[in-house]
TrEMBL record:
Native organism: Actinocatenispora rupis
Pfam families: GerE, Response_reg
GO molecular function, one term: DNA binding
Modified residues (4-aspartylphosphate): 55
Lineage, top ranks: Bacteria, Bacillati, Actinomycetota, Actinomycetes, Micromonosporales
GO biological process per UniProt: phosphorelay signal transduction system; regulation of DNA-templated transcription
Domain HTH luxR-type: 145-210
Protein name as annotated: DNA-binding response regulator
Limits of the Response regulatory domain: 4-122
Length: 213
């Protein structure tokens, strides 16, 4: 199955480079390019790509606003957005993830990580550049862990811990000896019970509650 991708970046050279990297893969095709935020939103809503790669700094509206428009909590049928940027400022990372992004990749992270992020987003997983992840976790572990009651079952907690360690659904299934569909059901139940939108937020919740150590 081919993964359909939209690439949004205000620099033509960057868009061309991203297209070249992605279309070198047999399972990925770039269906559209956008040079600014407004065009990105319009193209994404019209074409409904499987994954949208969005730069942070773009004319008209920036990548954070694009992410909110396509993947935010109020969007009825959200798309999967991966933010790709040169800048790993905390405000960008938090803004993108709060806006609904399922990935945050630095442009200097290399082609392999970019491709992995697209595939992860398509499969419902999340991927954040390792250097960014470490900063996020340091920030979370610097905050006093919360131990308030929560509605999760022991099995759901097992899944949450595995997500916080970066496991995919298939790896969680193998680790816990349960089927892929059961893993997906647990993930969905966790999101519903905790009011979380994606795996990044689940991982953050786990670290905040001292469950990921």
């Amino acid at each position: 199955m081919t993964i359909r991708v939209l690439v949004a970046d205000d620099q033509a050279m960057v868009r061309g480079g991203l297209r070249m990297i992605l279309e070198d893969q047999p399972d990925i095709t770039v269906v559209a390019e956008a040079a600014d935020g407004v065009e990105a939103v319009e193209q994404a809503r019209r074409l409904r790509p499987d994954v949208c790669l969005v730069d942070i700094r773009m004319p008209r509206i920036d990548g954070i606003e694009v992410t909110r428009a396509l993947a935010g909590p109020d969007v009825p049928d959200p798309l999967r957005v991966v933010v790709v940027t040169t800048f790993d400022l905390d405000e960008y990372v938090h803004g993108a993830l709060r806006g609904g992004a399922v990935g945050f990749v630095l442009k200097d992270a290399g082609p392999a990580l970019l491709v992995e992020a697209v595939r992860a987003a398509h499969h419902g997983d999340a991927l954040v550049s390792p250097s960014v992840t470490l900063r996020l976790l340091r920030h979370l572990t610097a905050v006093r862990p919360r131990h308030e009651p929560h509605p999760l079952s022991e099995r759901e907690l097992d899944v949450v811990r595995a997500i916080a360690r970066g496991r995919t659904n298939r790896e969680i299934g193998a680790e816990l000896f349960i089927s892929l569909s059961t893993v997906k059901s647990h993930v969905s139940a966790v999101q519903t019970k905790l009011g979380l939108r994606n795996r990044v937020e689940i991982a953050a919740w786990a670290w905040e509650h001292d469950l990921a150590r």
